Amino acid sequence: MQGEERLKRLEKTKSLLFEKDLDALFLASYPNVFYLSGLRASLAYLLVTKEKGFLITDSRYFERAKALAHPSLECVLLLGDPYKFLKNFFTSLSLKKIGFEKDKIPCEFKERLRSKFYRLIGLSQPLRDLRMLKTPLEREWIKEAVKITDKIYQDVLHFIDSGKSELEVRGKMIELSFKYGAEGEAFPSIVAFREASAIPHWESSKRKIEGKGPLLIDMGVLYNGYCSDFTRTLYLGKAPSEFKRIYSLVKTAWFKAFEKVKVGLPVSEIDKAVREYFQEKGVLSNFTHSTGHSLGIEIHEYPRIYSGNKKKLSLATPLIEEGMVFTIEPGLYFPGKYGVRLENVVFIEKGEGKIYSEISLDLIEL
Questions:
Q1: Most buried residue, 90, 149, 182, 302, by most Cβ within 10 Å?
Q2: What's the DSSP call for residue 354?
Q3: Does residue 110 share a domain with residue 160?
């Protein structure tokens, strides 16, 4: 099944060559190489021509690459200097116009690939639209990642007690991710206690979780190479009324955003609903990031769930489509005090948003 799906992806990628008037597309970023081939490697390239694809890697990964080959994907062993090898390989195929990921390949890489025998043409996110819509199989993998994340969170609630550090809690989550069949973290999990929760991307530290206060947990796992993303903010002890009020605002904002999840609406409407609600409640300045993002092989993919500056918001803002998978994660942050964020992954299926996490958005007081 996976092989058939990758073959379809490769055929769709070939169609880009005709649209862009290219002889080939050269991919060097891990996410795109993995997306089309299934190979996970620190050094691997994929060259897609109108006839077939070439998966190029060195001896460390070549045996694994060969297992992924099929009639439309040939494996090529990279020998010697990578730049010289690639230039000679491109020339041997008589390619004249080669597209490349200008948003992923470093300037030096591009400069060293230059040749008088062909022209390099930069493309930004060439597989963006293809990867934006997840197939049923991709969605199943993300759902499994969500399911594992739920299990980890439920278990870790019993692990948190006075004296443990943020990093100890993160370590437990990593341990549980392997226990429940994941391949590890989708990103460095955030465990943020008290005032650290007011920093949206806090780096989990050795600080002890002692006494009362809010605890923000933001985590995700990898399953078959696909990510989940999940955030809850709980309170150790009895939460004061002001914290409960802010928590209620964030929870209500989440549902207002979710109400806008319908096929055909611009994704910007989701973010707009949150901002209008927070503006009405006088806390918009405490919402410091976008409402969400797509996810898949990468934790942050296109599109970003953001309404942006109205003057800059163009007609190119994508519409919600069947097969999209993205997060909704409103938050309010009060520097030096605390922050509250709530996040679920949303799947667009049968024209509307579906949630597969079974963890309630209600406030938990431990």
A1: 149
A2: E
A3: no
Q: What would the pLDDT profile of 254-306 be if each residue is shown by its tens digit?
A: 999 999 999 999 999 999 999 999 999 999 999 999 999 999 999 999 999 99
Q: Which of 135, 111, 127, 133 is nearest to 27 (CA)?
A: 127
| Shared-domain flag, residues 148 and 177 | yes
Query: Are residues 100 and 112 in contact, defined by beta-carbon separation less than 8 angstroms?
Result: no
Do 313 and 351 lie in one domain? The reply is yes
65 exposed, middle or buried (CB, 10 Å; 0-12, 13-18, 19+)? buried
Q: Which residues pair with 221 in a beta bridge?
A: 185
Nearest to 211 by CA among 246, 238, 183, 179: 238
Contact 192, 166 (CB under 8 A): yes
- Give the up-direction half-sphere exposure of residue 283: CA atoms within 13 A in the CB hemisphere: 20
Task: With CA atoms as reference, report the closest residue to 267 among 308, 296, 311, 228.
Answer: 308
Instruction: Tell me the pTM.
Output: 0.95
What angle is formed at CA 157 by the lines to CA 152 and CA 159, rounded to 5 degrees? 90
Provide the greatest CA pair distance for the chain: 71
Which of 99, 130, 161 marks a domain boundary?
130
Please check whether residues 13 and 109 belong to one and the same domain.
yes
43: left (phi over 0), alpha (psi -120 to 50) or beta: beta
Of 106, 130, 154, which closes a domain? 130
- If asked whether residues 43 and 167 sit together in one domain, one would say no
